[in-house]
Prior knowledge:
CATH architecture of the largest domain: 3-Layer(aba) Sandwich
Number of helices: 13
Helix content: 40-55%
Strand content: 5-15%
CATH topology of the largest domain: Rossmann fold
Number of strands: 10
Amino acid sequence: MPPDLDFQSCPTVQELPECLSRAWTRRAIDLLEAEGRRSADTHLISLDLPRLPGIAFYFKDESTHPTGSLKHRLARSLFLYAICNGEVREGSTIVEASSGSTAVSEAYYARLLGLPFVAVMPRTTSGEKIAAIRRYGGRCHLVDDPTTIYTEAARLACESGGHYLDQFTFAERATDWRGNNNIAESIFGQMSSEPNPVPRWLVMSAGTGGTSATLGRYIRYKNHNTRLCVVDVERSAFYDAYRTGDMNVTCSRPTRIEGVGRPRVEPSFLPRVIDHMIKVSDAASLAAMTVLSERLGRRIGGSTGTNFFGLCWIAAHMQAAGETGSLVTLICDSGERYASTYYNDAWLAEQGIDIRPYTAMLENFLEGGRFEVSVR
């Protein structure tokens, strides 16, 4: 038998800590969970297309989140991930590299948690997004070279003793792809009572790559007979990486379709969960944005135009093959954020973008004509 130990006199025994930092963590998690419960799931909109018999279009409307975009989900996941990893604590300065929408949502959550927030963004980011970040109390650090947003964000976080959320690295791992009301689970749940409840295709553009990773993983996890098409844009490295297998490819110029396309292949982009990928011109994306806005009766953003063009491209191939079924994509954000750019004729002319040929082609297709344009 070991001798009795006198713990009172043992100099190595100390009182257990009170874990004051955990008290803040508990409060923060409670706030995030309460906000999640208040924010009802987004709508799934069906678009009536009588000239495309047997093919049904659905749009998951992420613009109805409190911060107006798909990135609301990602921002919440990134905060939960960082807090539960012990990286974000009371008083932490939150820093993010963003083209706008993620930063808007993160500014919202930072204010909810009482944390200072800094968004590092290209100077070309739409003024509407910059104004939204500032309305939530965030600070915008604008850079002339979009490729420097990563290093600038890391530098600012280090100097402030704060935390760089780094959406481009952590988007695919911060989101619970198995379920927990992620966007994939929500889509399939809402589709369950539709005539064709299991979509033939999900179509999604890539920004961080996190949403396409979640969709692709969930499809496999649930063993759905659904395929995933990812649509890339001009001035983006994703498509070339998918086509060649070279994850080190880069693009020298920044994308003009905010929220999608990247000059480098982001760590969250997982090409092996993608079934097919295409690349479309910016003119095609913005024409599709205009056509869909008219049919919905409200403005949507450029990345949603990218999604819609991809949806039409898949539908045209299904129609040619005599296939029927449902197709689902996302409305990523509202077009009101782009009144000074995508919906501005002077901006389009300055950029050398002519949407008219693609607008006519899409309208013709939706009215029963052929899909005449080719994409890569």
